[in-house]
Design a protein that fits this description.
single chain; mainly beta; six-stranded antiparallel β-sheet; three-stranded antiparallel β-sheet; 2 helices; 9 strands; 44% strand; globular
Length: 123
């Protein structure tokens, strides 16, 4: 299937702060439907990955909210994304929700599955 809905997409990560649903949609790509609550910081979950950041590229669209994306080790190394923006996040980033966020994300399946596996193995 090359399309999916929220209800049809399997839950890959679910916590009090984040819900990530992921489904392979064709070729080597997966779609993720993601909700983060205000204040959710993915930094602790990404510890242990290269540079303690997500090593997977993502292309997507922010449906709701504002999100800070740390892109380096310096405190000033970040970008802010807002509702209605399409984005590309190269490898080496850490998301933090400045407001409740919802976004759609397209990523290489194999790379994203490694990140999801790392996060879920810490539970």
């Amino acid at each position: 299937m090359t399309a999916t809905t929220w209800d049809e997409t399997p839950v890959a990560i679910q916590t009090d702060e984040a819900e990530l649903r992921r489904k392979e949609i064709g070729g080597d790509l997966s779609v993720a439907l993601i909700r983060l609550v205000k204040g959710a910081d993915m930094g602790p979950a990404l510890k242990g990955l290269p540079d303690d950041m997500c090593p997977c590229p993502h292309w997507g669209y922010l449906l709701k909210g504002r999100l800070k994306l740390r892109t380096g080790t310096a405190p000033e190394a970040y970008d802010v994304y807002e509702e209605g923006q399409a984005f590309y996040w190269p490898p080496g980033h850490v998301p933090e929700a400045l407001e409740d966020c919802e976004f759609v994300d397209f990523s290489p399946t194999e790379e994203f599955d490694r990140v999801i596996g790392h996060i879920t193995s810490q539970d």
